[in-house]
Write a sequence for this structure.
């Protein structure tokens, strides 16, 4: 979970989830009000983790799985990947470049 770098308070899952789904350049700490930026590693993780769901789609199609199995599996994987994103979300008090 995200931990504010100013007040060192750990955000709850719900607060971190809101920060993840808003896709802002920075977030405001719900406890002290300071600007908190996602870390470089967090931005990379937020790009890679949801794409893992798509990786399972292609092999299942290639091996001839019926859509009645693929669609529920993909929906469950999408919900699970969205649910775990807050655990990979970390913040810093300064904006880091991507490189």
């Amino acid at each position: 979970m995200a931990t504010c770098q100013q007040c060192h308070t750990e955000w709850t899952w719900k607060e971190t989830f809101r920060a993840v789904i808003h896709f802002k350049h920075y977030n405001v700490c719900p406890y002290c009000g300071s600007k908190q930026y996602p870390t470089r590693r967090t931005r990379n993780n937020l790009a890679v983790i949801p794409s893992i769901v798509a990786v399972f789609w292609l092999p299942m199609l290639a091996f001839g799985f019926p859509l009645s199995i693929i669609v529920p599996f993909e929906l469950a994987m999408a919900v699970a990947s969205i649910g775990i994103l807050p655990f990979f979300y970390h913040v810093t008090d300064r904006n880091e470049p991507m490189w």
Notes: Residues 67-84 form the longest helix (18 residues). Residues 13-92 form one domain. Helices lie at 13-22, 40-48, 51-62, 67-84. The radius of gyration is 17 Å.
